[in-house]
Every structure is written in structure tokens, then in C-alpha cells.
Amino acid sequence: MLFHTEKRDWAQDYIDQGILPGFSNMPSYSGIGALRNSDVLTAVSHVASNVARFPIVILDDDKNAVKNIKSVDYLLNKHPNDMLSAYHWRFLMTVNAILTGDGFSRIIRDPHTKAPLEIQYFPPSQTYIDDSDVMNIKYEFTPINQKGGGQTIVVPAEDVIHFMFFTYDGIHGRSPLLSLADEIGLQDDGIKTLRRFFKSGLKGGLLKAKGKLSPEARLKTRKDFEYSQRNSNAGSPIIIDDRFEYSPIEVDTNVLQLINSNNYSTAQIAKALHIPAYKLAVNSPNQSIKQLNEDFITSDLPYYFKPIASNLEMTMLTDRQRHNCHIEFDTRKETGMSMDDVQKGVTNNVITPNEGRVRMGLVKSDNPDLDRFQSTLNTVFLDKKEEYQKQSTAKGGGIDDKRLGNSTVDDANSDESSN
């Protein structure tokens, strides 16, 4: 680990990259500034909350059973550091990875065992990736103190958790919002048009003056007219003298309706961020909310889950653990097998009752009998059928066949005699 005094202008670097909003008149379609758009805010918060709410589990590759690695489970699901809960840490990391392309956290390890002890979050504005040597990537963290400066911490890639959902070089992430500049701009322009229309108080009109006016006179006449009407409200009378003729401009309300009902930009934002369009108030397909939610978890969220799990495997697990385990987000409580499907699987000897409980998202039972395959006495293997019939005939019939769920002629005769 290396320390040196930081000399670069970090803020300007990230203003130039669009990660932090600048002071120019150009709108920002990525970074924190993008959250001014309500659709972007809704989409980002929806994805981040789903990444944050599902538990992260370590599964055995062979048995697909949950492995208990306490230090990793505690940091990822409960308490990564003294400042943040696990939910807010994952929420922050996901929000930054979407808005800026990257989410960064430093892993503080035990100096002797190298086990992870703490996960320290850093915003992108305090992080720089040194990729001068692509075979030896370094991350430079510069925390900002109250005086404005800070000492830079240089750590290797294996000690950094790096969330990035789209990348073209494996080193730097790219925000999907960079591809939505036209769509977000179109939506913003439509909203501004509506604001100007209603802010004007519906008083737009045409003022005709008698005689020929110079450009300067026209400007002065307009300013005088606007000044005389400055305290009036919508619907107030307009006072003019006999030198002028005023007529209101008719506004095509169809244009305003088109602006207000334009769902194109909203649908494009939903598509780019991999969320169902109905979450942004766009009409959804003819499916139930449960079906839409399950489809979102199984089809769209893996776009976020897989990169996160892959990076956590490389940084939080040892090489030996990676050979035997893998990390996943546990969504079984919402997408697991139903009770009916588990019952069918147990009845058909596909799974054991305990495997069914695990697939439903329930805790595995300690009852050893639930780890055995279940069967009934009403079934028999086809290659054993003739053998059982011979045994039944030799013994007089009836008893064994009843046990197998079959009825014989002797059984029927005995029942008639008893009656």
C-alpha cells in the first residue's frame, strides 16, 4: 500500500467527464445531474433497491448448498463498515455504477490472514484508476477532509470492489445514461414548453398598432404593453387605447397533448436501464404484476446481479474457495418453486423434501428423513412386476398385492364370503 500527496484537480477531472455537474449552460445527462429527471430517478432507485434488498449467498458448486463463510456474509449482508448498513452500501454502489459507470469500495484486510475485515466506500470523485500498466491495475483513493485536501491511498485491484455494468475494456465502466442524451433532452424540452405555456398565463396574443413602426418603436410598444399587464392574472381584462387592436393567439392544444402524452423517451429510459416500462407509468403487456415482477427478476436483474457477483467472487473469496464455491443473489422467496411444484417433485422422486424446502426459500430441516427420497407402496419397478406376482401366487395371493395397491380375484371372493 502506497501513500502520496494528491496534486491533480479531481473535481475538474470529473466535471469534464460529466460525473459531477458543472457550471456551464449545457445540461448534464449523466452523473448526479441526471437525477433531476423523474424517470431516471425512478428507474435508478428501482434497480438499486432490488440489488440492495436481495441477500447475497455463497453456494457450493457440487451440492448447490449455502456455504457459511461468516466474514464474507457479515460484510455483504449486514455491516460492511461503521458508517453504512449493507443495504445502503449496495444501494450507493449501484446508483454510482449506473450514473457514472463505476462504483468503488476498498477492502481492508487482516494483515496476517488476509481475510476481509471492512468494506470502505469511496465516491467516484475520490477515485482514480491507474491503468498505465494493464497487467497491474492500481486504484487511487483520495478522501477529502475538512481542509479540502487528503492523502492518496494506492491499492491493488484485488483489494477493490468495483461495480460496473457495461464496459468495453474491462477496466472502466460506462453509464447507460450516456446513450440517452437525445431522449432525456427531448423530454426536458417538452416539459420546458409546457412550463413556458402555463407561466405566460395564457396571455399570448397579437397587438396591432396603427401606422408604420420602426423596430425600436415596436420593441418599446411591446415593453410598455407588457409593463401595463405585469400584475394581471389569467383571465384578467386587457386594457388598450384606440391606437391598438389586440387579438389572442389560439394555441393548438393537440400539440400540448402530444408533449404531455409522449411516452417515447420514458420507454427508451426503461429499455436502457433494463426495467419494466410499467414501472415508469407506461402501459404494460397483458400480464399480472406477479408475472411481470418475476420476469424482471429472472430476465433483467441478472444484467446487474452477474457483474456484481463475479467481482465479489474475485475480491472477497480466496482462490481455493473460488474453485469450490460461487456467489449469487438469493431471489428464491419471490421466484422459488411453488408448493405444488415441490410436491410433484417429491412425489415423482425428482427431489427430496429438504431440497424442495431449499428451492422454496425455506430453511433446511434437521430431520434426516427429509433428506431421503419419498415413495409409496402403490408403485413397483416394471422389471420386478413378474417377480412380485410369482411371490404373491406362491403365498396364496392377496397380501402382497394389497401392499402393492393391486386387487386380486381371491380378495374379491373373500370379501363376498364375509358379507
From TrEMBL:
<feature type="region of interest" description="Disordered">
    <location>
        <begin position="388"/>
        <end position="419"/>
    </location>
</feature>
<dbReference type="InterPro" id="IPR006427">
    <property type="entry name" value="Portal_HK97"/>
</dbReference>
<dbReference type="InterPro" id="IPR006944">
    <property type="entry name" value="Phage/GTA_portal"/>
</dbReference>
<protein>
    <submittedName>
        <fullName>Phage portal protein</fullName>
    </submittedName>
</protein>
<dbReference type="Pfam" id="PF04860">
    <property type="entry name" value="Phage_portal"/>
</dbReference>
